[in-house]
Write a structure and sequence with these properties.
Layout lengths: L8 H13 L4 H10 L2 H27 L2
Helix pairs in contact: 1-3
Length: 66
């Protein structure tokens, strides 16, 4: 029987990116749920959070700079 192909890390990062905004079509969500590696999702989420915090820190430093 043909097993579904697992998504690569790039596809996982794309899914995590869209999840940060909360915009996913149901069809895409179901596809991701079936094909994404949970370890990749966790690593991708940690990378996304680190980037988000870095951007926030940068913006705050720009806002309070004299």
């Amino acid at each position: 029987m043909n097993e579904p192909r697992k998504a690569n890390f790039g596809a996982t990062m794309k899914a995590v990116f869209w999840s940060f905004f909360g915009v996913r079509k149901r069809k895409d969500y179901e596809h991701d749920a079936a094909n994404l590696n949970p370890v990749h999702v966790i690593v991708g989420a940690l990378i996304g959070v680190a980037i988000f915090i870095g951007v926030l820190v940068f913006v705050v430093k720009l806002a309070v700079a004299k």
